[in-house]
Amino acid sequence: MSVATRLTQMGLEIPMPVAPVANYVPFVQSGNLISISGQIPMGADGLDYQGKVGDDVSVEEARAAARLCALNIIAQLNAATGGNLERVNRIVKLGGFVNCVDGFTEQPQVINAASDLMVDIFGENGRHSRSAVGVNALPLGVPVEIDALVEID
């Protein structure tokens, strides 16, 4: 089944890629690898989620934020592949950062929402290695930021 078909079946549309807000580029291609800069939960009307997990953001809200980060990764990947997501051979790695209170230990459950989306969309090629790290702050006060390394043909 094609990536486009999976997206349609899931009722998802690829958003417009988020423009960088500092001195970096949204993705870099080196050979057949694409490194995608950290994506935050930016929706069509701006930030959809802000706050600290375990304080003013629940685990379920953080999971929704992680899923939106993953969708923004796919938007950057779509731009990097010239609109041809069928070129994706493998989601190699996701790096997940969770802005959370001290003592919070559910970072893997939060980032699982992004991992699950990659597998749902790319099938076996979406299985990846991963980090899920708790941090005390993220840019713009977002609860989650995720970057990616992707192999394309």
Describe the protein.
With 153 residues, this protein is of the alpha+beta class. The chain has one domain (28-152): 60s Ribosomal Protein L30, Chain: A, CATH 3.30.1330. The chain is built from three helices and seven strands. It has a five-stranded mixed beta sheet. Strands 3-4 form a two-stranded antiparallel ribbon. Strand 5, helix 3 (107-122) and strand 6 (129-135) form a beta-alpha-beta unit. The longest helix has 22 residues, at 59-80. The radius of gyration is 15 Å and the shape is globular.
Distance between the termini: 18 Å
**What is the CATH top level name?**
Alpha Beta
Would you report the number of β strands?
A: 7
Q: State mean pLDDT (0 to 100 scale).
A: 96
Give the oligomer, counting copies of the same chain as homo and different chains as hetero: single chain
Largest sheet strand order: 1-2-7-5-6
**Cα radius of gyration in angstroms:** 15 Å
- Class by SSE composition: alpha+beta
Instruction: Please name the CATH architecture.
Output: 2-Layer Sandwich
The main β sheet shows up as: 5 strands, mixed
Number of domains: 1
Q: Topology of this structure?
A:
Blueprint: H1 3-9, E1 27-30, E2 33-39, E3 42-43, E4 46-47, H2 59-80, E5 88-99, H3 107-122, E6 129-135, E7 144-152
Parallel strand pairs: 5-6
Antiparallel strand pairs: 1-2, 2-7, 3-4, 5-7
Helix pairs in contact: 2-3
